[in-house]
Design goal:
Order of helices and strands: HHHHHHHHHH
Distance between the termini: 58 Å
CATH class: Mainly Alpha
Largest sheet: none
Strand content: under 5%
CATH architecture: Orthogonal Bundle
Radius of gyration: 19 Å
Helix content: over 70%
Number of helices: 10
Length: about 170
């Protein structure tokens, strides 16, 4: 806390007054990082009206690029140890980061199910399958010190297109 106060050019007392727990401080830092890094990439209400091919492709590109970007990866790696030791902080991280993107995906999929466009018996499983298709290979390679595939813009688009087609071939209503 001394270092945080020094960096913020304030007192520890002021920090404790504003953030009564380490988790509250952590949540504020995460929310700030999310606004800087991830929020500009999230899809808005206009995109929610797109057909599944377009929405899922745009979201897939956002997800894949977010996982290929070294800055958010370094931030996540730095947090990994702390998160394993604090379930409360892990939940805070999830709710202020990856959980926000998944909430947008969940809302979209539920609306497409309501409209009769998609048929997904378990939306949570469907979401995990979609995200796994998009980022699973890249994250697996990166976690083992290998360069991610794909890396180039055209390859990212082609990768995401294939993942979206595979997902929709299973869940689109016939």
């Amino acid at each position: 806390m001394d270092e945080i106060a020094r960096e913020a050019k304030t007192s520890k007392q002021t920090i404790y007054a504003r953030f009564p727990t380490k988790t509250a401080l952590f949540a504020a830092v995460l929310a700030s990082r999310f606004r800087q890094v991830a929020a500009p990439r999230l899809l808005g209400a206009k995109e929610q009206e797109l057909p599944p091919e377009k929405f899922l492709h745009q979201l897939g590109v956002v997800l894949l690029k977010g996982n290929l970007d070294p800055e958010p990866r370094r931030f996540s790696e730095m947090l990994r140890t702390a998160l394993h030791h604090s379930p409360e902080m892990a939940e805070t991280f999830w709710n202020n980061g990856p959980g926000l993107g998944r909430a947008a995906l969940r809302a979209y999929l539920l609306e497409q199910i309501r409209l009769g466009v998609l048929s997904i018996p378990d939306v949570e499983i469907g979401m995990e399958q979609f995200v796994g298709l998009i980022v699973g290979g890249a994250v697996f390679r990166i976690s083992r010190g290998m360069p991610p595939l794909p890396q180039q813009e055209k390859d990212i688009a082609r990768w995401v297109f294939g993942c979206v087609e595979l997902f929709l071939s299973f869940y689109r209503t016939r």
